[in-house]
Amino acid sequence: MPDGRHSDGPTEKCGVVGVSLDGRDAARPLYYALYALQHRGQESAGIVTHDGFQQHSHVEMGLVGDAFGEGDLEALKGPTGVGHVRYPTAGSVNSCCAQPFSVSFKSGSLGLSHNGNLVNTAELREELAASGHAFTSDGDTEVIAHDLARNLLEADLIRAVKRTMDRIHGSYSLTIAHDDTILGVRDPQGNRPLCIGELDDGYILASESAAIDVLDGDLIRDVRPGELVVLEEDGAGFDSYQLVEQDNTAHCFFEHVYFARPDSRIDGNLVYDVRRELGRKLWEESGVDSDVVLPVPDSGRAFASGYAEAAQDDGADVEFAEGLMKNRYVGRTFIMPTQDARERAVRLKLNPIRDVVEGRTVTVIDDSIVRGTTSTQLVKLLNDVGAEAVHMRIGAPEIVAPCYMGIDMASREELIAAGRDTDEIREDVGAESLSYLSIDAVAAALEESRADLCLGCVTGEYPYDIEGESTDRDIVRPDIEDPHAGVADD
Ligand code: SF4
């Protein structure tokens, strides 16, 4: 869980990276890049490199700083490699599912880093197992690795990737080391982010551009949905292959609202700017008179500054203040699974500044409400220190359904907004007033049409074919019985 995220927020999935350099070992740049992506996963970290002869791998449970020692980095020889930070979303919470997933096949060695979640893993696993593939984990990344390995026996690299893309269904941004060739693949709907950057002596693929920044590189562009990017082995350039075309994308809007770093650029937008714009739209849609606007730190900050600025532009006499102080030393709250523990975690983590709040009407701005535990506790805390009234404004629509694309959103039963109207939620939370941002405002801030966003968790209609759920578009599920379904030979 990213620093500053609160106990009942959605939990991020994974971060991926891949580099190809001109001679220099890739391990250290990969390590720094993983540090920059640490907010995307704290369960495990790993790097796989290739030195032209053999593959080297180091994968450990824990944070990046704990997973690698100096000796580990020294041992990861070679100028190409991929890395991964993981929060488990499919597969067990143990080292067998930590990534990159690495394996040697007749077709060469593979190291795979995956961000996202396939929705047809079970069928694929069954089909591959029936044709003799043995699995060592229950994660979906190994399924992709086996499928790709099989295709590499029968086709060249580009066609093999295309065949695998035609069989897997769901959300995936992949960095892949096939011997000393580094590949980046983004699913045809571009659900999870992936971008390409240029370094002094090579090229990098990463989940977020912040990982390029820390290496003093330049962001070139996002990997396009359905695109395969192949980094040249000597770091001299990259090739692009548009392997799958689809009419509509399904970008996860939550990347901008919550998951990604504010200093990252995703699908053309600086996340910080998007959050400020969402805050401005929140004022336009549901601004309320109050003495002071408080962000819920840290993720509510950009929303609250946009909201307060828009209010002041409209002539409102309102102050923007940091009235909630965060204790940065409280541990990761997802290890506190009970409701009581989560409530205590909120009290440990956030402390209101009495002088900012006492005797004043307060508008608290947060990015989202999942279970509602944090919001309820916050309103109580602010009332306890003398707030005259506590209004709550949320920079995203109501979360009414779970995510199947790799985000731990909690189950439907746990979501405070599932099947309830805003006034019922307001009553539960104990706020004077409560408003969420509309879906249209989110789409406008992202400069996307609704049809190009994944809105599954806020509408209950998904951009993929998920058993028992409805979809918001026409989808043809891949025919996994035929390994070469829909694939032309050249
Ligand atoms: S369901 Fe929500 S969190 Fe999951 S991918 Fe879609 S928008 Fe993102």
Quick overview:
Helices cover 29% and strands 26% of the residues. With 490 residues, the protein is of the alpha+beta class.
Explain what the structure shows.
- This protein has two domains: 14-246, Aminohydrolase, N-terminal nucleophile (Ntn) domain (Glutamine Phosphoribosylpyrophosphate, subunit 1, domain 1); 273-448, Rossmann fold, CATH 3.40.50.
- 29% of the residues lie in helices and 26% in strands.
- A seven-stranded antiparallel β-sheet has the order 3-2-4-1-10-9-11. A six-stranded antiparallel β-sheet has the order 5-6-7-8-12-13, with helices on one face. A five-stranded parallel β-sheet has the order 18-17-21-22-23, with helices on both faces.
- The longest helix has 16 residues, at 271-286.
- Iron/sulfur cluster is lined by residues 191, 252-254, 403, 405, 407, 454-457.
- Iron/sulfur cluster binds next to helix 8 and helix 16.
Structure characteristics:
alpha+beta; Rossmann fold; binds iron/sulfur cluster; disordered N terminus; 7-stranded antiparallel beta sheet
* Beta-strand residue fraction: 25-35%
Number of domains: 2
Query: What's the CATH C level of the largest domain?
Result: Alpha Beta
Radius of gyration, in angstroms, nearest whole number: 23 Å
CATH superfamily of the largest domain: Aminohydrolase, N-terminal nucleophile (Ntn) domain
Instruction: Tell me the CATH topology of the largest domain.
Output: Glutamine Phosphoribosylpyrophosphate, subunit 1, domain 1
Counted by DSSP, the helix tally is: 16
Broad structural category: alpha+beta
What's the arrangement of strands in the largest beta sheet?
A: 3-2-4-1-10-9-11
- Major beta sheet summary: 7 strands, antiparallel
Task: Please tell me the CATH architecture of the largest domain by its name.
Answer: 4-Layer Sandwich
**Ligand roster:** iron/sulfur cluster
